[in-house]
C-alpha cells in the first residue's frame, strides 16, 4: 500500500530562497524546501544551526532577510497584517514550554483562540473544548490550572490549544524537552495518532533521535557552518548515508572527540 503523501496538489508549505538572520549575522542562506500535505517532517541539526529560528519564520514571528514562505499557497512574508492572521488560522503551534496562560484553566486556555477567531455560540465552544481535551487524553481536567498538572500534561494541553481551530498544519518546538522517557514516548504516539486520524501536516523541531525515528517520515538537517540544509531524507536513509559525514555522525551519535582520534 502506498503511504506517500498525495503530490497532485501544491505543497502545503513552500520555502523559497530563504535567508534569515539577526543584524549582520546570517543564520540561514538561500534555503529551499517543500512540505507536502500529511507529512511528518523533523527539522534537526547541531546546536546553533537555527532550528527554532527557522520555525519562527515559518509561523510568521520573524521577518526574513530575503526569500518567501508560502502556507497553503499564500505568502506569509508578503501578506498584510490581516491576511497573515487569516493564513495563521491554518496553523497551530506547540511551543517548548506549552505557553499556557497560568491564570486560566485548561478549558479557558483552549477557548481563547476559538472565541477570538470564530463567532460560535458558547455551548458549541464548550463542546469543542471537551473534544480537544479528549483528543489529548485530558478529559476531566478542564478546570485545572497549568500549575496543577505535570509537565507532560502541560504539553498535551498546549497541543489541545494548538488544535483549537482544526489547523491543517501543526508546528512543534522541541516537544520532548523536559519530559521523562515515558512521557516523551506518549507524546510521540499522540503526534502519530493526530497525523493518522486528522491528516494534519506536522513539523517538529527537535534534536531527540528517539522521537525522530519514532515519528518522522522525513528529516531536514540544518548545518551551522554552511547555513543551509545538508540532508533531506528519511531517518533510516540519513543514518546509513556514509557519504555525508556530519549527518552520519549525528544520527549514529558519534562524538566529535572520537572523530578527532580516527
How is this structure best described in words?
It is a single chain. The longest helix has 18 residues, at 181-198. Helix 3 packs across helix 4 (122-135). The strands form two sheets. Strands 6-7-8-3-9-10 form a six-stranded mixed beta sheet. A four-stranded antiparallel beta sheet has the order 2-1-4-5, with helices on one face. The protein is an alpha/beta fold and 262 residues long. It has helices at residues 51-58, 81-88, 106-117, 122-135, 151-162, 181-198, 209-215, 235-240, 245-251, 256-261, and strands at residues 13-22, 25-35, 40-45, 66-71, 74-75, 91-94, 169-173, 201-205, 218-223, 228-233. It has ten helices and ten strands.
What is the element layout, followed by pairings?
Layout (H helix, E strand, L loop, with lengths): L12 E10 L2 E11 L4 E6 L5 H8 L7 E6 L2 E2 L5 H8 L2 E4 L11 H12 L4 H14 L15 H12 L6 E5 L7 H18 L2 E5 L3 H7 L2 E6 L4 E6 L1 H6 L4 H7 L4 H6 L1
Parallel strand pairs: 3-8, 3-9, 6-7, 7-8
Antiparallel strand pairs: 1-2, 1-4, 4-5, 9-10
User: Helix/strand/pairing class, anyone?
Assistant: alpha/beta
Beta content comes to 15-25%
- State the order of secondary-structure elements, H for helix, E for strand: EEEHEEHEHHHEHEHEEHHH
Largest sheet: 6 strands, mixed
> Largest beta sheet: what is the strand line-up?
6-7-8-3-9-10
What's the number of helices?
Answer: 10
Poorly predicted ranges (pLDDT <50, ≥5 residues)?
1-8
- Calculate the mean pLDDT score and round it: 91
- Computed Rg: 19 Å
Total beta strands: 10
Distance between the termini: 43 Å
Oligomer: single chain
What gross morphology would you assign? Answer: globular
Instruction: State the helicity in percent bands.
Output: 25-40%
Amino acid at each position: 500500500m502506498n503511504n506517500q503523501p498525495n503530490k497532485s496538489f501544491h505543497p502545503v508549505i513552500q520555502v523559497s530562497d530563504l535567508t534569515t538572520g539577526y543584524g549582520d549575522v546570517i543564520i540561514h542562506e538561500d534555503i529551499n524546501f517543500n512540505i507536502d500535505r500529511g507529512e511528518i517532517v523533523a527539522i534537526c541539526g547541531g546546536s546553533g544551526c537555527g532550528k527554532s529560528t527557522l520555525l519562527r519564520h515559518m509561523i510568521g514571528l520573524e521577518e526574513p532577510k530575503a526569500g518567501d514562505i508560502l502556507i497553503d499557497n499564500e505568502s506569509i512574508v508578503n501578506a498584510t497584517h490581516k491576511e497573515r492572521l487569516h493564513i495563521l488560522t491554518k496553523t497551530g503551534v506547540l511551543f517548548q514550554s506549552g505557553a499556557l496562560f497560568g491564570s486560566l484553566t485548561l478549558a479557558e486556555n483552549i477557548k481563547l483562540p476559538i472565541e477570538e477567531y470564530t463567532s460560535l455560540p458558547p455551548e458549541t465552544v464548550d463542546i469543542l473544548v471537551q473534544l480537544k481535551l479528549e483528543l489529548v487524553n485530558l478529559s476531566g481536567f478542564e478546570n485545572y490550572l497549568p500549575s496543577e498538572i505535570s509537565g507532560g500534561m502541560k504539553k498535551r494541553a498546549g497541543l489541545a490549544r494548538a488544535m483549537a481551530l482544526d489547523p491543517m498544519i501543526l508546528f512543534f518546538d522541541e516537544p520532548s524537552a523536559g519530559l521523562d522517557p515515558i512521557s516523551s514516548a506518549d507524546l510521540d504516539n499522540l503526534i502519530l495518532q493526530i497525523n493518522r486520524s486528522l491528516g494534519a501536516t506536522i513539523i517538529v523541531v527537535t534534536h531527540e533521535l528517539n522521537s525522530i525515528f519514532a515519528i518522522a517520515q522525513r528529516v531536514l538537517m540544518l548545518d551551522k557552518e554552511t547555513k543551509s540544509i545538508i540532508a533531506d531524507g528519511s531517518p533510516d536513509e540519513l543514518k546509513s548515508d556514509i557519504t555525508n559525514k556530519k549527518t552520519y555522525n549525528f544520527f549514529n551519535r558519534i562524538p566529535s572527540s572520537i572523530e578527532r582520534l580516527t
